[in-house]
Amino acid sequence: MKTVAVANRKGGTGKTTTAVNLAACLAARGRSVLLIDADPQANATVSVGLPLAADGTGTAALLAADADLAAAAAPTPFPRLAAVPAGPALAAAEFGFEERGDGWQRVLRDKLTQARHDHVIIDTPPAMGFLAYNCLAAADGLLVPLQCDYFSLEGLREFAANLARIRQAHNPGLRLAGLLRTMHDPRTLLARQVSEGLRRQFGSLLFETSIPRNVRLAEAPSHGKPVIHFDRGCSGARAYEALADEFERKCR
Amino acid sequence: MKTVAVANRKGGTGKTTTAVNLAACLAARGRSVLLIDADPQANATVSVGLPLAADGTGTAALLAADADLAAAAAPTPFPRLAAVPAGPALAAAEFGFEERGDGWQRVLRDKLTQARHDHVIIDTPPAMGFLAYNCLAAADGLLVPLQCDYFSLEGLREFAANLARIRQAHNPGLRLAGLLRTMHDPRTLLARQVSEGLRRQFGSLLFETSIPRNVRLAEAPSHGKPVIHFDRGCSGARAYEALADEFERKCR
Ligand SMILES: Nc1ncnc2c1ncn2[C@@H]1O[C@H](COP(=O)(O)OP(=O)(O)OP(=O)(O)O)[C@@H](O)[C@H]1O
Ligand SMILES: Nc1ncnc2c1ncn2[C@@H]1O[C@H](COP(=O)(O)OP(=O)(O)OP(=O)(O)O)[C@@H](O)[C@H]1O
Ligand SMILES: [Mg+2]
Ligand SMILES: [Mg+2]
């Protein structure tokens, strides 16, 4: 499962925080990792200390077939962690590339075959628009971060159908890497009920690791650092290290 | 400011929770309110106790010019609160309606002129795709719920430019109704710093009211009820009542 798209149409479920910190923890374990920021918000880009991609560079250039992967990727301040940054030019892609239908997904899929890294992790935007959809069509695995709340449960009902549709239409090899509980506060009854429901429905596809609510995870991006390079002993850092370990064991 | 779009491209900032509860509180004060669910996730629809819109009904039908406003709107269990529900058919709109460019926004704007309600409140999806963009192009006012975190601050930098662009291209009359701090926990330093920064930058455009983190707000949708009809004494309910009062005073 070399290329993993971190995705959930629901907003604010910790996609970016997960993509960035899983990538950083894998790199810290000695793996070479490429983080692709496919979200015009560019939150992942700033979280690894990079400036926004100038026009003609970064993910927009990669998708427009103007650049190959090696040209679009930039080193980050962190060893073995490279990134393809997002920038303002990527916003146009959300309204629909000129190149619609199969052409689009094939571009990304072909570029990804050039990757020489151990892991490729893609941060995707919320909502099911062109960008998120095409990342799912191009990836090997899908990691779904979610909060334990009612709307997440509702969203999962459609989720299986959506995954089946993408597999059938574009990407038969797409596998679910796992569901990850984020911003998890098991002290509330709602969170515990939803968590138990997820375990019953998804079994081992629900990661054992869950990410606790920890303000250090929200502060780290303002310093341009993944959390392990900002406060490595905090509960958020330890949780993402545990996730990286579980991910490597389970998602080959 | 009759039609207000509740919008923020950032995910999970409390757009739906705000659209639903502001609408419900205004209706409880005796106003007639129409809530339009323009998000394929249909979270607002379930939050007011309605089933998902069947194909050929609801917001998708409204946008496709297949239905006028009276036909698309349905009563909710709550007095004076009507809603145009979202359903699976709305997902296609996120990938771009057949009718692109000006035709699209004009459809929604024209339908909205048929509204006989005191207030029309539109819940929009995250990400800046066709649906969110066109709701902004059709509305009179824009209410932006946001969390006091680093990505929100980053997002606001582009925000003024985006607003100007929409005004110039489609909707010169669009005004900012206000910024609303949601899930606000003033005990964390990050939240206080961002909150003070917002006040300095936006002055009275930052609502005095802020919505505290309150699990009752996350539980209410699972009962198909706005929070004032679920637990009217809780901190979340009282905060949205205060917001409704401030909104009516300031956003005429
Ligand atoms: N475990 C956590 N504890 C505390 N804060 C967190 C945690 N995870 C994420 N956050 C913060 O919550 C906010 C939302 O998280 P994030 O941006 O990663 O979600 P997202 O799913 O990528 O959002 P979007 O849908 O907009 O892309 C951010 O400010 C982030 O820093
Ligand atoms: N003040 C609050 N206290 C506790 N939970 C809240 C609060 N406001 C919203 N929530 C919960 O947080 C989650 C995200 O809120 P909501 O769905 O309203 O955000 P949104 O901006 O509409 O998300 P999206 O970007 O996916 O449309 C929901 O489960 C909601 O019930
Ligand atoms: Mg994100
Ligand atoms: Mg919403």
Secondary structure layout:
The structure is a homodimer of 252-residue chains.
Chain A: E1 3-6, H1 15-28, E2 33-37, H2 43-47, H3 58-63, H4 69-72, E3 74-75, E4 81-84, H5 91-94, H6 102-112, E5 119-123, H7 130-138, E6 141-146, H8 150-169, E7 175-184, H9 189-202, E8 206-212, H10 215-219, H11 235-250
Parallel strand pairs in A: 1-5, 1-6, 2-4, 2-5, 6-7, 7-8
Antiparallel strand pairs in A: 3-4
Helix pairs in contact in A: 1-11, 6-7
What would your notes on this structure say?
The structure is a homodimer of 252-residue chains. Chain A has 252 residues and is of the alpha/beta class. Chain A has 11 helices and 8 strands. Chain A has helices spanning 15-28, 43-47, 58-63, 69-72, 91-94, 102-112, 130-138, 150-169, 189-202, 215-219, 235-250, and strands at residues 3-6, 33-37, 74-75, 81-84, 119-123, 141-146, 175-184, 206-212. Chain A has an 8-stranded mixed sheet, with helices on both faces. In chain A, strand 6 (141-146), helix 8 and strand 7 (175-184) form a beta-alpha-beta unit. The first copy, chain A, is globular, with a radius of gyration of 17 Å. The mean pLDDT of chain A is 93. The interface between A and B is large, with 37 and 39 residues. One adenosine-5'-triphosphate sits between chains A (11-17, 39, 43, 125-126, 182-183, 211, 213-215, 217-218, 221, 236) and B (10-12, 126, 149, 151).
